[in-house]
Amino acid sequence: MVDGLAPPVTGVSWHDGWLYLAEGGVGRIIRVDAGGRVETVVDGLPGPGNYHVNTPVVGPDGWLYFGQGAMTNTGIVGPDSYELGWLARLPHAHDIPGYDVVLAGVNVDTPDPRDPHAGGPVRTGAFAAFGEPTEPGQKIAGQVPCTAAVLRCPPAGGGPVELVAWGLRNAFGLGFLPDGRLLALDQGADDRGSRPVGAAPDALFEVQPRAWYGWPDFIAGRPITDPAYPPSLLADHDMLPPPRRPLATFAPHAATTKFALAPPGAGSLADHLLVTVFGDEAPMTTPGGAPAPVRGVVAVDLDDFAVRPVPTPPLHRPIDVGLRPGEDDVAYILDFGQFEMTGQGVDATPGTGRILRHRLRETTS
Q1: Which of 116, 157, 195, 282 is least surrounded, with the fewest CB atoms within 10 Å of its CB?
Q2: Structural domain that includes position 323
Protein backbone atom coordinates (compact mmCIF):
# COMPACT_ATOMS: atom_id res chain seq x y z
CA MET A 1 0.00 0.00 0.00
CA VAL A 2 1.15 3.55 -0.80
CA ASP A 3 0.13 6.38 1.50
CA GLY A 4 0.40 10.14 1.22
CA LEU A 5 -0.25 10.53 -2.51
CA ALA A 6 -0.79 14.12 -3.69
CA PRO A 7 -4.28 14.27 -5.21
CA PRO A 8 -5.59 14.17 -7.77
CA VAL A 9 -4.07 10.87 -8.84
CA THR A 10 -4.92 11.18 -12.52
CA GLY A 11 -3.82 7.83 -13.92
CA VAL A 12 -2.21 4.49 -13.17
CA SER A 13 -0.75 1.78 -15.38
CA TRP A 14 1.14 -1.49 -14.90
CA HIS A 15 4.32 -2.39 -16.77
CA ASP A 16 7.09 -4.91 -16.20
CA GLY A 17 6.45 -5.36 -12.48
CA TRP A 18 5.84 -1.70 -11.68
CA LEU A 19 2.68 0.31 -11.05
CA TYR A 20 3.05 3.85 -12.42
CA LEU A 21 1.01 6.65 -10.81
CA ALA A 22 0.59 10.32 -11.79
CA GLU A 23 0.30 12.70 -8.81
CA GLY A 24 -1.35 15.81 -10.19
CA GLY A 25 -1.11 17.75 -6.93
CA VAL A 26 2.68 18.00 -7.12
CA GLY A 27 3.49 17.37 -10.80
CA ARG A 28 5.13 14.01 -10.27
CA ILE A 29 5.10 10.43 -11.58
CA ILE A 30 6.14 7.63 -9.26
CA ARG A 31 6.33 3.87 -9.61
CA VAL A 32 5.70 1.16 -7.03
CA ASP A 33 6.79 -2.48 -7.18
CA ALA A 34 4.94 -5.47 -5.76
CA GLY A 35 6.83 -5.16 -2.48
CA GLY A 36 5.74 -1.55 -1.95
CA ARG A 37 9.05 0.06 -2.92
CA VAL A 38 8.42 3.58 -4.28
CA GLU A 39 10.62 5.36 -6.78
CA THR A 40 10.22 8.82 -8.34
CA VAL A 41 10.29 8.65 -12.13
CA VAL A 42 9.94 12.38 -12.88
CA ASP A 43 9.29 15.37 -10.65
CA GLY A 44 8.89 19.12 -11.04
CA LEU A 45 6.33 18.99 -13.83
CA PRO A 46 4.17 22.11 -14.35
CA GLY A 47 1.32 22.58 -11.94
CA PRO A 48 -0.88 22.21 -10.25
CA GLY A 49 -3.15 24.33 -12.40
CA ASN A 50 -6.51 23.95 -14.07
CA TYR A 51 -5.19 20.55 -15.19
CA HIS A 52 -2.35 18.22 -14.27
CA VAL A 53 0.04 15.47 -15.29
CA ASN A 54 -2.05 12.57 -16.63
CA THR A 55 -2.07 8.85 -17.44
CA PRO A 56 1.46 7.43 -17.61
CA VAL A 57 1.72 4.54 -20.08
CA VAL A 58 4.77 2.70 -21.45
CA GLY A 59 4.95 2.54 -25.24
CA PRO A 60 6.29 -0.19 -27.53
CA ASP A 61 9.57 1.75 -27.74
CA GLY A 62 10.08 1.36 -23.98
CA TRP A 63 9.54 5.04 -23.10
CA LEU A 64 6.99 6.27 -20.55
CA TYR A 65 4.44 8.59 -22.17
CA PHE A 66 2.12 10.94 -20.29
CA GLY A 67 -0.15 13.90 -20.83
CA GLN A 68 0.51 17.28 -19.27
CA GLY A 69 -2.59 19.44 -19.03
CA ALA A 70 -2.84 23.19 -19.48
CA MET A 71 -2.57 25.62 -16.58
CA THR A 72 -5.54 27.62 -17.91
CA ASN A 73 -8.75 27.19 -19.85
CA THR A 74 -7.49 28.73 -23.11
CA GLY A 75 -4.10 30.33 -22.48
CA ILE A 76 -4.75 33.36 -20.24
CA VAL A 77 -4.74 33.21 -16.44
CA GLY A 78 -8.02 34.64 -15.18
CA PRO A 79 -10.38 34.79 -12.21
CA ASP A 80 -11.52 31.23 -12.89
CA SER A 81 -8.04 30.07 -11.89
CA TYR A 82 -8.55 31.74 -8.53
CA GLU A 83 -11.98 30.14 -8.15
CA LEU A 84 -10.46 26.73 -8.91
CA GLY A 85 -8.01 27.34 -6.11
CA TRP A 86 -4.52 27.46 -7.52
CA LEU A 87 -4.03 31.15 -8.33
CA ALA A 88 -4.17 31.96 -4.61
CA ARG A 89 -1.44 29.36 -3.96
CA LEU A 90 0.65 29.79 -7.10
CA PRO A 91 0.28 33.33 -8.45
CA HIS A 92 3.30 32.79 -10.73
CA ALA A 93 1.91 29.73 -12.56
CA HIS A 94 0.97 30.12 -16.23
CA ASP A 95 1.09 28.09 -19.41
CA ILE A 96 4.38 27.20 -21.07
CA PRO A 97 4.54 26.66 -24.85
CA GLY A 98 6.27 23.59 -26.22
CA TYR A 99 7.31 25.36 -29.43
CA ASP A 100 8.63 28.87 -30.00
CA VAL A 101 5.63 31.17 -30.49
CA VAL A 102 4.98 34.80 -31.40
CA LEU A 103 2.15 36.49 -29.53
CA ALA A 104 -0.58 38.60 -31.08
CA GLY A 105 -0.55 40.85 -28.01
CA VAL A 106 -4.04 39.96 -26.80
CA ASN A 107 -4.62 41.17 -23.23
CA VAL A 108 -7.74 40.80 -21.10
CA ASP A 109 -8.84 43.15 -18.30
CA THR A 110 -10.44 41.50 -15.27
CA PRO A 111 -11.05 42.36 -11.63
CA ASP A 112 -8.38 41.11 -9.25
CA PRO A 113 -9.98 38.19 -7.35
CA ARG A 114 -7.15 38.18 -4.82
CA ASP A 115 -8.10 41.66 -3.59
CA PRO A 116 -11.72 42.74 -4.20
CA HIS A 117 -10.89 46.20 -2.88
CA ALA A 118 -8.07 46.82 -5.36
CA GLY A 119 -8.64 49.78 -7.62
CA GLY A 120 -9.14 49.15 -11.34
CA PRO A 121 -8.86 46.02 -13.46
CA VAL A 122 -5.83 43.78 -13.92
CA ARG A 123 -4.51 43.28 -17.44
CA THR A 124 -3.13 39.81 -18.36
CA GLY A 125 -1.74 38.38 -21.59
CA ALA A 126 -1.16 34.89 -22.96
CA PHE A 127 1.53 32.62 -21.50
CA ALA A 128 2.10 35.19 -18.76
CA ALA A 129 1.52 35.43 -15.02
CA PHE A 130 -1.73 36.99 -13.80
CA GLY A 131 -1.43 40.77 -14.08
CA GLU A 132 1.34 40.65 -16.69
CA PRO A 133 0.39 42.13 -20.10
CA THR A 134 2.04 41.15 -23.39
CA GLU A 135 2.91 42.99 -26.61
CA PRO A 136 2.21 42.24 -30.30
CA GLY A 137 5.16 40.36 -31.75
CA GLN A 138 6.46 39.29 -28.35
CA LYS A 139 8.34 36.00 -28.64
CA ILE A 140 8.00 33.22 -26.09
CA ALA A 141 10.56 30.42 -26.30
CA GLY A 142 9.36 26.85 -26.19
CA GLN A 143 10.38 24.85 -23.14
CA VAL A 144 10.34 21.27 -21.94
CA PRO A 145 8.54 20.35 -19.82
CA CYS A 146 5.70 22.47 -21.13
CA THR A 147 1.94 22.49 -20.63
CA ALA A 148 -0.84 21.28 -22.97
CA ALA A 149 1.33 18.49 -24.33
CA VAL A 150 2.22 14.83 -24.50
CA LEU A 151 5.66 14.19 -23.04
CA ARG A 152 7.84 11.13 -22.49
CA CYS A 153 10.74 10.01 -20.31
CA PRO A 154 12.59 6.77 -19.45
CA PRO A 155 10.35 4.55 -17.27
CA ALA A 156 13.05 4.12 -14.65
CA GLY A 157 13.60 7.87 -14.38
CA GLY A 158 16.96 9.57 -14.38
CA GLY A 159 16.72 10.60 -18.01
CA PRO A 160 15.44 13.55 -20.00
CA VAL A 161 11.83 14.60 -20.38
CA GLU A 162 11.12 14.93 -24.09
CA LEU A 163 8.34 16.66 -25.99
CA VAL A 164 6.25 14.34 -28.15
CA ALA A 165 3.57 16.79 -29.33
CA TRP A 166 2.14 20.13 -28.24
CA GLY A 167 -1.28 21.77 -28.32
CA LEU A 168 -3.48 19.19 -26.56
CA ARG A 169 -5.41 21.14 -23.93
CA ASN A 170 -5.80 18.23 -21.50
CA ALA A 171 -4.79 14.82 -22.82
CA PHE A 172 -6.39 12.98 -19.92
CA GLY A 173 -6.78 9.55 -21.53
CA LEU A 174 -3.68 8.18 -23.24
CA GLY A 175 -2.90 4.73 -24.60
CA PHE A 176 -1.38 2.63 -27.36
CA LEU A 177 -3.28 0.40 -29.76
CA PRO A 178 -1.87 -3.06 -30.58
CA ASP A 179 -0.53 -1.68 -33.88
CA GLY A 180 1.55 0.89 -31.98
CA ARG A 181 -0.55 4.00 -32.60
CA LEU A 182 -0.74 6.40 -29.66
CA LEU A 183 -4.21 7.83 -29.00
CA ALA A 184 -5.22 10.68 -26.71
CA LEU A 185 -8.56 11.92 -25.42
CA ASP A 186 -8.35 15.71 -25.30
CA GLN A 187 -10.89 17.57 -23.15
CA GLY A 188 -12.35 20.64 -24.85
CA ALA A 189 -12.40 24.22 -23.61
CA ASP A 190 -14.99 25.64 -21.21
CA ASP A 191 -17.17 28.73 -21.25
CA ARG A 192 -15.33 30.39 -18.37
CA GLY A 193 -12.45 32.63 -17.46
CA SER A 194 -10.75 35.44 -19.34
CA ARG A 195 -11.07 33.69 -22.71
CA PRO A 196 -14.29 31.66 -22.61
CA VAL A 197 -14.97 29.18 -25.41
CA GLY A 198 -18.39 27.56 -25.22
CA ALA A 199 -19.73 24.41 -26.93
CA ALA A 200 -16.22 23.05 -27.54
CA PRO A 201 -16.16 19.29 -28.19
CA ASP A 202 -13.83 16.76 -26.68
CA ALA A 203 -11.67 15.01 -29.27
CA LEU A 204 -9.86 11.75 -29.96
CA PHE A 205 -6.48 12.30 -31.61
CA GLU A 206 -3.73 10.11 -32.95
CA VAL A 207 -0.58 11.57 -31.43
CA GLN A 208 2.20 12.12 -33.96
CA PRO A 209 5.74 13.20 -33.04
CA ARG A 210 6.37 16.97 -33.27
CA ALA A 211 2.79 17.70 -34.29
CA TRP A 212 0.68 20.64 -33.13
CA TYR A 213 -2.90 20.01 -32.04
CA GLY A 214 -4.03 23.62 -32.13
CA TRP A 215 -4.42 24.74 -28.54
CA PRO A 216 -4.86 27.59 -27.61
CA ASP A 217 -6.22 28.85 -30.96
CA PHE A 218 -7.89 25.77 -32.44
CA ILE A 219 -10.47 23.39 -30.97
CA ALA A 220 -10.58 19.87 -32.44
CA GLY A 221 -8.75 21.13 -35.52
CA ARG A 222 -11.03 24.14 -36.11
CA PRO A 223 -10.01 27.77 -35.49
CA ILE A 224 -11.66 29.80 -32.76
CA THR A 225 -13.36 32.37 -34.98
CA ASP A 226 -16.51 33.31 -33.08
CA PRO A 227 -16.47 37.13 -32.72
CA ALA A 228 -17.77 36.76 -29.17
CA TYR A 229 -14.42 35.28 -28.16
CA PRO A 230 -11.10 37.07 -27.83
CA PRO A 231 -9.07 36.75 -31.03
CA SER A 232 -6.17 34.37 -31.62
CA LEU A 233 -3.40 34.52 -29.07
CA LEU A 234 -0.67 33.48 -31.51
CA ALA A 235 0.49 35.50 -34.50
CA ASP A 236 2.61 32.77 -36.10
CA HIS A 237 0.23 29.97 -37.06
CA ASP A 238 2.02 29.61 -40.40
CA MET A 239 5.29 28.94 -38.60
CA LEU A 240 3.82 26.06 -36.59
CA PRO A 241 2.88 22.62 -37.91
CA PRO A 242 -0.66 22.54 -39.37
CA PRO A 243 -3.10 21.86 -36.53
CA ARG A 244 -4.12 18.21 -36.52
CA ARG A 245 -7.74 17.24 -36.98
CA PRO A 246 -9.27 14.67 -34.64
CA LEU A 247 -10.19 11.10 -35.47
CA ALA A 248 -13.50 11.59 -33.64
CA THR A 249 -15.26 14.25 -31.62
CA PHE A 250 -17.58 14.00 -28.65
CA ALA A 251 -20.32 16.29 -27.43
CA PRO A 252 -19.39 19.49 -25.57
CA HIS A 253 -18.90 18.92 -21.85
CA ALA A 254 -18.66 15.16 -22.37
CA ALA A 255 -15.52 15.14 -20.19
CA THR A 256 -14.10 12.02 -21.80
CA THR A 257 -11.65 10.42 -19.42
CA LYS A 258 -10.09 7.02 -20.24
CA PHE A 259 -10.43 4.30 -22.85
CA ALA A 260 -9.79 0.61 -23.48
CA LEU A 261 -9.97 -1.56 -26.58
CA ALA A 262 -12.98 -3.87 -26.37
CA PRO A 263 -12.02 -7.58 -26.48
CA PRO A 264 -12.82 -9.92 -29.41
CA GLY A 265 -15.67 -11.54 -27.48
CA ALA A 266 -17.57 -8.28 -27.04
CA GLY A 267 -20.07 -8.91 -29.83
CA SER A 268 -20.68 -5.89 -32.05
CA LEU A 269 -18.37 -3.84 -29.83
CA ALA A 270 -15.32 -6.02 -30.57
CA ASP A 271 -12.26 -3.93 -31.45
CA HIS A 272 -14.07 -0.67 -30.65
CA LEU A 273 -12.67 1.85 -28.20
CA LEU A 274 -14.70 1.95 -25.01
CA VAL A 275 -14.57 5.53 -23.67
CA THR A 276 -15.77 6.64 -20.25
CA VAL A 277 -17.75 9.89 -20.27
CA PHE A 278 -17.51 11.68 -16.94
CA GLY A 279 -20.19 14.04 -18.11
CA ASP A 280 -21.74 17.35 -17.30
CA GLU A 281 -25.28 18.45 -16.67
CA ALA A 282 -25.67 19.61 -20.28
CA PRO A 283 -27.63 17.33 -22.67
CA MET A 284 -25.40 15.31 -24.94
CA THR A 285 -25.62 13.97 -28.48
CA THR A 286 -22.98 12.32 -30.60
CA PRO A 287 -21.70 14.12 -33.72
CA GLY A 288 -24.13 12.06 -35.81
CA GLY A 289 -27.08 13.18 -33.74
CA ALA A 290 -27.66 9.91 -31.88
CA PRO A 291 -28.37 10.16 -28.16
CA ALA A 292 -25.48 9.56 -25.82
CA PRO A 293 -25.33 9.18 -22.05
CA VAL A 294 -24.59 12.26 -20.01
CA ARG A 295 -22.49 10.04 -17.79
CA GLY A 296 -21.64 6.64 -19.12
CA VAL A 297 -19.65 4.80 -21.80
CA VAL A 298 -19.49 5.35 -25.55
CA ALA A 299 -17.87 3.20 -28.25
CA VAL A 300 -15.71 4.49 -31.08
CA ASP A 301 -15.53 2.36 -34.23
CA LEU A 302 -11.89 2.29 -35.30
CA ASP A 303 -12.89 1.77 -38.95
CA ASP A 304 -14.95 4.92 -39.45
CA PHE A 305 -14.62 6.56 -35.98
CA ALA A 306 -18.37 6.75 -35.49
CA VAL A 307 -19.42 7.25 -31.87
CA ARG A 308 -22.36 5.47 -30.26
CA PRO A 309 -23.53 4.87 -26.69
CA VAL A 310 -22.91 1.60 -24.85
CA PRO A 311 -25.85 0.40 -22.73
CA THR A 312 -24.81 0.08 -19.08
CA PRO A 313 -26.53 0.23 -15.72
CA PRO A 314 -26.85 3.80 -14.36
CA LEU A 315 -23.50 5.37 -13.58
CA HIS A 316 -22.66 8.43 -11.49
CA ARG A 317 -19.22 9.60 -12.64
CA PRO A 318 -17.47 6.91 -14.74
CA ILE A 319 -13.80 7.77 -14.92
CA ASP A 320 -12.00 4.67 -16.22
CA VAL A 321 -12.59 1.40 -18.05
CA GLY A 322 -10.35 -1.64 -18.17
CA LEU A 323 -10.12 -5.29 -19.13
CA ARG A 324 -9.01 -8.46 -17.38
CA PRO A 325 -7.10 -11.21 -19.22
CA GLY A 326 -9.23 -14.27 -19.77
CA GLU A 327 -12.57 -12.44 -19.64
CA ASP A 328 -13.20 -11.94 -23.32
CA ASP A 329 -16.57 -10.19 -23.12
CA VAL A 330 -16.26 -8.19 -19.89
CA ALA A 331 -15.21 -4.63 -19.09
CA TYR A 332 -14.58 -3.19 -15.64
CA ILE A 333 -15.88 0.36 -15.20
CA LEU A 334 -14.61 2.56 -12.38
CA ASP A 335 -17.41 4.82 -11.16
CA PHE A 336 -16.13 7.75 -9.12
CA GLY A 337 -19.48 8.02 -7.34
CA GLN A 338 -22.05 10.74 -6.89
CA PHE A 339 -20.62 14.17 -6.14
CA GLU A 340 -21.05 17.75 -7.25
CA MET A 341 -18.76 20.75 -6.96
CA THR A 342 -20.21 23.56 -4.85
CA GLY A 343 -19.00 26.89 -3.60
CA GLN A 344 -18.09 25.20 -0.32
CA GLY A 345 -16.14 22.33 -1.90
CA VAL A 346 -17.20 18.81 -2.89
CA ASP A 347 -20.65 17.51 -1.98
CA ALA A 348 -20.19 13.72 -2.14
CA THR A 349 -22.65 10.90 -1.47
CA PRO A 350 -20.93 8.20 0.61
CA GLY A 351 -21.03 4.65 -0.71
CA THR A 352 -21.75 5.53 -4.35
CA GLY A 353 -18.28 4.84 -5.75
CA ARG A 354 -17.81 1.36 -7.16
CA ILE A 355 -16.17 -0.88 -9.75
CA LEU A 356 -18.76 -2.39 -12.10
CA ARG A 357 -18.11 -5.73 -13.83
CA HIS A 358 -20.07 -5.27 -17.05
CA ARG A 359 -20.74 -8.03 -19.62
CA LEU A 360 -20.53 -6.42 -23.05
CA ARG A 361 -22.03 -9.11 -25.27
CA GLU A 362 -25.32 -9.13 -23.35
CA THR A 363 -25.84 -5.43 -23.94
CA THR A 364 -25.07 -5.45 -27.67
CA SER A 365 -27.12 -8.40 -28.94
Answers
A1: 116
A2: 253-365
